[in-house]
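User
Class, as today's exercise, I want you to study this protein, comparing sequence with structure tokens, and judge whether sequence predicts the tokens.
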Amino acid sequence: MHLVPKTPTTKGPAELFTGDVHFDVIAAGVAPSRLRVNLVRFAPGAHTAWHRHANGQTLHVTDGVGLVQSRGGEIIEMHEGDTVYTPPGVWHWHGASPTDFMAHLAMWESLEAGQDGPETEWGDHVGDGEYPAGG
């Protein structure tokens, strides 16, 4: 057993996120583990671009109010303590509500040996009319 040193907080890049987003890597999937965990903090209105994960993703809200949507689905409002699972290959986005900060643990698995394709595939930014207007 050993203490894993904290990595510096990273600002979410503009090509993948809209608004102010910062994340800390909690678990990096170091073999033999494939578990990846990031603590992600979103300012009001900040959110990811559309993306999908080869092995799915679980989000657990630790603070605030967030939104998540799969392509073609309804927007789901998430609150502290809520957990949302998105199955493998499903396009989705997630982030803070227009009026509240939100933080969540994002959890997914890296690719298995011999598994083809990207671990996470990023698409377009969430378009006008897809993310709800603030109040």
